[in-house]
């Protein structure tokens, strides 16, 4: 197996506000290999978007990285000078956002905005730049480039805008694409199209993807491997089918059980009782212990390390690997 | 003319506003200075004649042998053409300045708020009519209408105050209409309507009291602006007349001698400036508290 | 686009009609007797009655209003009691001086205000931001007439750098007379190559323009700052950063274009402010413009002049608002009418 393209190791991020310090991420480790699609899944507030932003060095002003490392192709990103980071953003690592309508500047045409991105990284003559843009637009399924390039964001539909955003991200041929909830704001049918598009582009161009979402169904469709995040810590990571077939962490099990299934019988909706802790940094033991159906004394006292269950399957649970979780 | 106007329709929770205000003021040194100055103004307005070193001169008595003296220990702001102590005049001038402002703002609210609330609550043709009239008044450049009214009525502090009130009421009508429009959809208003409470009572007991906070904030900001407007009218000769210790009038009186006896115009004008500045600083703070989407 | 303008003009016409009604009401419902004022203090009752009839003051009010409107539309705005010349002629004659002053002030205030606002937002919470915020709140709080006097004391009396009053040195009428083409002296002197006069006119323009510009700079800087901060917090700025676009391009092009949309409204407001602000500045600097003329009219109860200028100012305001709307629709593709 080739060395990981992206290696996030023990990343910890805190928020410093006048009302105190809270922990956003507490020792998160994620690897994305060459040409791999890794899904980062978890509830709102678990830190998955933070992870994406930290990779690009775009954390909000109140956030600080307190420990850990992020390497891209072996090169450390944390602590890199602003100018260097800027060179990487959009060219080596690109990001796609949740709401395409607000991610585009309303007073510039799509074409102008794509030219801005290209101009930030490559000095191409106008004709060559135009050609590259049209080529990329065609790749994402927008062949009528003329109309798109001249249009303003408010004149295009959500699906088209998302495709355009993906095109913008791929303009400079990045090695890694971070997709932060790219389909959450879209209709289900459009969502399916975009997911297919991402898979297709990944196959033809060979870049890696870090796919961030809260939707288990989407994760299962699109990822090769999955990392489950809870309250700023990694709960479980495994190959997609291994995770869905034999979840090892009680939280993963709970998540899957909570997904409403269409069935003939009317079942009560399962949910995980309680709520996500506010500041995981204050918790010595397992963050999930309070809500876990099988928690023991040790869970509350001692922080569970990631246990290797074989085949690249890891779970941060003292009870992992013992019995199948219901 | 106001520098900032609350977005019409912003309905503000009243609970704890005084506490939040105190906390915000203590955190911001500029706003704190503003509050201090306003407090000073109120003190001067109330106790002026007792604080001023030469209260009689403040009112208008002259002391001609002591005319045109520069700033000194005895007369920190100097003396004017009739020998009157400028410091006393400025101190005593705080009362007319503040009283006229409060009068103007009060009158403007008295006219504007009921009209605006009525328009916003009833909607329909009444609303359209009242809003057309409001738009008409607001279509005049600031102060121009007031000047025209004063010209029609004749100069004088009372005419100036009336003219300013007539120019100002449309702002309050707009603001009141905005809050009335957003309040009328609220369940408690619907409940009152359904049990048969009359319109006038609803307006009086529910709509207006719930709109009071943004209106009061706007009024506070406006007091400063009106001080400036009244002073400007007086400067042109359209407001108070001698020997009233009106700050704007004093600046005008000193203008002929401004190059050599600079203190005659400088200190009264400074008083206007400091007063307006203080109200603007506090007004900024209030706007931030009430509408966080604003300047900060 | 033309339909949009036509529709707006039609709406404005309704407003102007209402405005004329108000000015008419003001002029006619005045306590004092206009006819008596017109003739002067030593008139006999028969003369007053005769003049009243001449001026049409004895006819019923609605007819007076219609006559008034018809006169206005045909260019007869009455005669000035003070100068005995047609009001419209007086207004138009003095307009260029005032326009030059307002133009100079706005050309100074708008770029300066926007720049200060942008810098303040860019360096938020650091020294440039604090300086700009102090400058802007001082600017909107300064009484213009007081500032004018202070500047005169400083630059004329103390520093002997700039002239005290007036638009041009009276001696120049003989040495380098100005050939008036537009009435805007800076333009006229430049066009005719009269550089001596140009320098003199420019020198005279500095203090009045600065005085008039104080409030606009303050207000524009404040609003630009607020608008920029809002723009810089938007998703598209974060997306631009994620795409590797540089901070300078983001601030001065991508965010600024969005921020300028509300700023056009503010510029319109400051233009409206200048319409009356110029009165005070002209009085302090003895500037031979519409302002000094109007103030004289106000003090002398020259009603035709006062009503004429009021209507004129209101018309100007309507035009300004229309221009602001057009500018906004040009800047913001979402509201574009074409």
Q: Helix and strand layout, with pairings?
A:
The complex is a heterotrimer of chains A (326), B (296) and C (338).
Chain A (H helix, E strand, L loop, with lengths): L5 E12 L2 E13 L4 E5 L6 H9 L6 E10 L2 E2 L5 H7 L4 E4 L3 H4 L6 H12 L4 H14 L5 H6 L7 H13 L5 E5 L7 H18 L2 E6 L2 H7 L2 E6 L2 E7 H6 L4 H9 L38 H5 L5 E2 L5 E2 L11
Parallel strand pairs in A: 3-8, 3-9, 6-7, 7-8
Antiparallel strand pairs in A: 1-2, 1-4, 4-5, 9-10, 10-12, 11-12
Helix pairs in contact in A: 5-7, 7-8
Chain B lengths: L16 H11 L1 H23 L3 H5 L26 H7 L1 H29 L1 H15 L5 H10 L3 H27 L3 H8 L4 H38 L10 H9 L7 H28 L6
Chain C lengths: L1 H27 L5 H6 L5 H10 L6 H13 L13 H36 L4 H15 L2 H15 L13 H4 L9 H7 L3 H38 L2 H8 L4 H39 L4 H10 L3 H29 L7
Give a description of the structure.
The complex is a heterotrimer of chains A (326), B (296) and C (338). Chain A is an alpha/beta fold. Chain A has helices at residues 48-56, 82-88, 100-103, 110-121, 126-139, 145-150, 158-170, 188-205, 216-222, 240-245, 250-258, 297-301; strands at residues 6-17, 20-32, 37-41, 63-72, 75-76, 93-96, 176-180, 208-213, 225-230, 233-239, 307-308, 314-315. Chain A starts with 5 loop residues before the first strand and ends in an 11-residue tail after the last strand. Chain B is elongated and about 75 Å long. Helix content of chain B is 71%, strand content 0%. The longest helix of chain B has 38 residues, at 199-236. Chain B has helices spanning 17-27, 29-51, 55-59, 86-92, 94-122, 124-138, 144-153, 157-183, 187-194, 199-236, 247-255, 263-290. Chain B contains 12 helices and no strands. Chain B has one domain (32-289): MetI-like (MetI-like fold, Orthogonal Bundle), CATH 1.10.3720.10. Chain C is mainly alpha-helical. Chain C is built from 14 helices and no strands. The interface between A and C is medium-sized, with 28 and 21 residues.
